[in-house]
Amino acid sequence: MNGNGNGSRNGNGSGSERGLRGTTGPRISTDFAYRGIETAILENEALRVMVLTGKGGDIVEFRDKRTDVDVLWRTPHEWTPPRERYVPTASETAWNEHYPGGWQVNLPVAGGGWEIDGSAYGIHGESALLPWDAEVVRDDSEAVTLRLTVDLVRYPFSVERELTLPAGESRLEIDESVTNLGEVPLEYVWQQHVTLGRPLLSADARLDFPSATGVNAEYGADFPNARLEGDATYDWPHSPGRDGGTVDLREIPGPDSTIHDQSFLVDLEEGWYALTNPDLDLGFALTFPLDPFECVWYWQALGGYHESPWFNRNYNVGLEPTTAYPGGDVPDAQRANGTMKEIEPGETIDASFTATTYGGLESVSSVDEDGTVEGENGSGNESE
């Protein structure tokens, strides 16, 4: 697909028939372009997933076919594709200038800038700004699999990501690994930067987590539109509010809000979350391993993110499984609270995720590792 929304098979509008094969069962192709970026599409009867292989392996479309809703958020500003093997400077603006929304993998750091031996990063590291090599490693009637690989430039990490779409299922299975190719132990922060937006996100939606502890950022002057009390700890979902009351974070403020908050969910009982919109009969759920993804960053950009390039234009939530917190003062704060992790020379760490859409529920009580979602329907009965 190209930048104006008109599809082409190979990015030059020739309509090549080398694109998605077949009319039934799962299908896959790497023969697309989006804004000039090499792109892959995975598709079955239930889901359509678009991946920017030429930029970070970003997932920029996760469309539920039953409702024809893309659950991911797209940024409102005029982002530009990175050029060739672009690696960010220490500037805080580089990552955002190339940010389309959707879902990124951030390595070797997430959050604020990081000074490293002989170099530096701005926000969110480099993995989401590099082109990844893409290979179709499975393409049959049972499932399709796209393998993405990249070697970072400023850090000796090799990263692999396999996306599998099974036949007939409304779920995407993701297996990732990170290998330290260096000769010394290396610290890292690894993040799944997932952002959800309208129409799934609305005042009709509800956010469910398992039992967890919430930690609000120490705001200072950076969050003038915060509704939550800064530098506070609470039991999910009831956060202390800036006005002295209590905020139920299962509830989503409407699109006319002017709110910007950041919470970190830690001590999770299980690794999952679910955002459900009964009005659409649609929800999105993600599972993740608590080792090493021991926390979720809950970015609440609900019409009140005043800084560039947003200027109060974005209505979205970021629900971001991450290996460490908070998002600022990297790496000192993460070392101090014991969440900064390390990979030994030659060591590989891996993790698996399942992303799924579902219907028939108003709230969610559990999500299994295979993406099975259970909760209550409109009659108050348990359903799945």
From TrEMBL:
Gene3D superfamilies for the chain = 2.70.98.10
Question: What's one Pfam family the UniProt record gives for this protein?
Answer: DUF4432
Q: Where does the source fall among the domains of life?
A: Archaea
Which intervals carry biased composition (Gly residues)? Answer: 1-16
Which residues does the annotated region (Disordered) include?
1-27, 360-384
Among InterPro entries, the record links this protein to: DUF4432 (IPR027839), Gal_mutarotase_sf_dom (IPR011013), GH-type_carb-bd (IPR014718)
Q: Where is the composition biased (Low complexity)?
A: 374-384
Protein name as it appears in the record: Aldose 1-epimerase
Species for this entry: Natronoglomus mannanivorans
